[in-house]
Amino acid sequence: MSIRVLIVEDDAELREAVVTGLQSVGYETGACASAYRALQLIDTFAPDLLVADLSLPGMSGLELIERVRTLCTGRCILMTGHASLRGVVDAFQAGVGDYLEKPFSIDRLLDAVGRLAPSGDAIRRQVMTPIPELAGTGPAMRHLHAFIRQAAECRASVLLLGESGTGKTAAARAIHRLSARAAAPFVSLPVSSLSPSLLESELFGHERGSFTGASARRIGHLEKARGGTLFLDEIGEIAPATQVKLLRFLQDHRIERVGGQTPIELDVRILAATHRELASAMTSGRLRPDFYYRLAVLTHVVPPLRERREDIPTLATEIVARVAAEEGRSLVDFSDDAMHALVHHAWPGNIRELENVLQRATIFARGPHIERRDLPADLGQAARVPVVPGATLAELRAYAVRRTLEETRTKAAAARVLGISVATLQHELVRTGQAATGGADACPLSATPARGA
Questions:
Q1: For residue 442, pLDDT beyond 70
Q2: E-strand spans in 347-432?
Q3: Sign of CA pseudo-dihedral 22, 27, 29, 34
Q4: In 10 A of CB 349, how many CB atoms?
Q5: Please, what is the Cα angle at 176 between 170 and 178, to 5 degrees?
Q6: What is the C-alpha to C-alpha distance for residues 437 and 401, in angstroms, rounded to an integer?
Q7: Which of 188, 214, 329, 408 fits a disulfide with 231 by CB distance 3.0 to 4.6 angstroms?
Q8: Which CATH fold would you assign to the domain 134-301?
Q9: Was domain 306-374 assigned CATH 3.40.50.1970?
């Protein structure tokens, strides 16, 4: 397995020379001219080593290294034409493993890369280490597993994005378990289920008498996670006032209990997750940009189940084996028809929906195998707009919206399937008189459809 090196250099001639030199001895390379492009490539190329110029347009190489904590384990090389003692000290404090003063020879570059890059065996062991919380071997899951392992090596905050039921909590637990904090607490707090005032008390704790009903001191989740990890689920639901207090903690790692005046210093890593699209939340003012950028040092989208169908047979087998053991059943396999239906279903509820379907199928299966008859009748059947002679485009459009809502069960999922925004979907529902039912009515079309739908 080759070692991947990402080169970030805006001088095209030097960038090409570095790429050629590294490739000549067997390194796999990626290259770009800006730190902003590097942030994208780091997520997709997953380099083992970063070689960046100090002076880059927009964001410096040092800022890039400070921001990308997944690589800050001594596997960063900084190239600079203006080395100074202060600059070298700052570079090493930021996690740089070596620096190259321009002009430098290819031999000097290869020596630095050879000393800092992990061995192929080390990379292979890391890639092959299983992450049981998130089963799957397809490209999307391999990418997620690589991110989890890299995130586990550093202290930076992590933001996990993705639809409900995809496994964001499992990913957070895996990051904690693989980190140096594994022996310390992993504390989870579902943000969306709490009112703003209660959330603040749950996060920071409160002193006795700080508000009506506060009859005793309460330790908050941040203190409970001391030395470990606090996972905040649905972070997009936090009120702006609470975001300010959390931002303060992320900056100086100190809190004050509600009603208290004594700062408490805490070593706690924050992992967060949301299924919401946060750009619009920042635009509307519901999410503070400074809070978002401090929180989202490392981000990754946990893929929906429909984008990793190759993992469904493995997931299904593991789920059925677990449920069968719990229920005292001896199911061992699926019929071809049953597996075909599982693989081709849209799974708007993702892994949660898969677990629900298979738990029911395991309990009610009539033989040693799960057959197609043990699964829901409409499983794996995509919603299709019927071709009805005489139907208007408006009628077909209304039916497509309605059937997609029936299939996906949520407006957000239906909008994704239809390729429109939630606002556009809501407009369609209002325009066609379906807003009250949310798309759960029967098909409005018949063999001789009515006009004006």
A1: no
A2: 369-370
A3: negative
A4: 21
A5: 100
A6: 12
A7: 188
A8: Rossmann fold (3.40.50)
A9: no
